[in-house]
Design goal:
The chain has about 375 residues and is an alpha/beta fold. The protein is built from 12 helices and 14 strands. Strand 10, helix 6 and strand 11 form a beta-alpha-beta unit.
Length: about 375
């Protein structure tokens, strides 16, 4: 079978300049091109750098307009992406997330294969009000029952959720990470950080990532190291103001968004430990990146984090003192900290390489397209 013409819709675009789906698209799509496919990623201006590229590592880039409003940005962008896509001869759509699923339904009549990556459980995010959560649950239902020819889940626990809730199967196709070991000389100087002198949090500033709990517990632990938080928001929120206020009471530093070659990776390679508070599944790219950099990881005890980290890290709960106790344990067990980091890195080699992720996607896409 010849290569497929694939449209990837649902990220902000590549080169990645924001979050998980952007990194996922940046790593997956060039590899799909190398495997013989013609891939187009739909992008939003303002998220992929100052220069609007027509192509990135063989991947075609298309920019369509959107409304710059928090509630409507993604929906409006996916609408214009779909409209533009109808004039292009795609064989398969790969939608990243279910938020805009009602707009995917008419595509079932196009004879193009519609594949939806279910992502995590978006409706559980605390940033949404009751109306927003109700819509997101509806959109999830539409994706499963009406819109998708095929579902992809990046975690086995997410796949089990869709089987349990909707009696609908999905293909397990996970995320990937790089294995990195050497911290380049001087890379921490811009932040005046010393190797091993800090704990790291690297993620979007969202309530369900529990950064407020991490800050409180870190301060309570009494650690003499710093807590460094790399991440930002597109919109000013009361949660962001609250975090900054909490940070004033301890050795906490907010770096803001960190993007650029080997920048966040250097923060990982230099940290003593990585603190992971994500609770809305499934496979989290930030956690995999920490594991690939051999970080000792203290992760919130969710089924998703346990699936990824397994026995190569330690866990905490939201109970008062749980994370603080974990940090104090890490302070007193440096040899165990290093060994757990090494075993986490080996787990990436065994289960989460980008090349294998791409091969699995390519095989699946060709399989479902051949049934048309």
């Amino acid at each position: 079978m010849t290569g497929l013409r694939i449209a990837v819709i649902g990220s902000r675009g590549i080169p990645a300049g924001y979050g998980g789906f952007e990194t996922f698209a940046q790593e997956l799509c060039p590899r799909l091109v190398e495997l013989g496919n013609d891939v187009t990623v739909y992008c939003r201006k303002g998220y992929t750098g100052e220069d609007l590229l027509d192509e990135y590592k063989g991947v075609k880039l298309v920019y369509t307009p959107y409304l710059k409003r928090r509630e409507l940005e993604q929906l409006s962008h996916e609408f214009t992406c779909i409209v533009d896509s109808l004039r292009r001869p795609f064989d398969l759509y790969y939608f990243l997330g279910t938020r805009s699923a009602p707009m995917y339904v008419p595509l079932r009549a196009s004879r193009r294969v519609v594949v939806v990556n279910t992502d995590g459980l978006e409706w559980k995010r605390r940033k949404w009000n009751a109306l927003g959560r109700a819509y997101l649950r509806f959109a999830e239902w539409v994706a499963v029952r009406l819109a998708a020819d095929h579902l992809v889940s990046d975690a086995k626990a997410i796949r089990a959720y869709f089987q349990r809730t909707y009696r609908r199967d999905s293909r397990y196709l996970t995320n990937g990470a790089y294995v990195l070991s050497d911290l380049p000389d001087g890379m921490l100087d811009r932040w005046n950080l010393a190797p091993g002198g800090y704990y790291l949090v690297a993620c979007r500033i969202e309530p369900e990532n529990n950064i407020d709990r991490i800050v409180e517990e870190f301060i309570a632990s009494g650690s003499e190291r710093e807590l460094v938080i790399a991440g930002g928001m597109n919109y000013e929120t009361p949660y962001w103001v609250h975090l900054q206020d909490l940070g004033k009471h301890g050795r906490v530093r907010f770096l803001g968004p960190v993007y650029g070659p080997m920048l966040v990776e250097s923060l990982h390679l230099g940290c003593y430990g990585y603190l992971h508070g994500h609770e809305v599944g499934g496979t989290n790219p930030a956690l995999l990146k920490a594991m690939g950099c051999a970080n000792f990881t203290l992760a919130l005890a969710t089924e998703f984090n346990r699936e990824n980290l397994a026995d190569t890290g330690r866990y905490w709960t939201k109970a008062s003192g749980s994370l603080a106790e974990g940090i104090r344990w890490a302070e007193g067990h440096p040899d165990d900290v290093r060994e757990l980091g090494r075993t986490a890195q080996q787990r990436i080699r065994d289960h989460y390489t980008w090349d294998q992720v791409a091969r699995d996607h390519d095989s699946f896409f060709r399989e479902v397209a051949s049934r048309r």
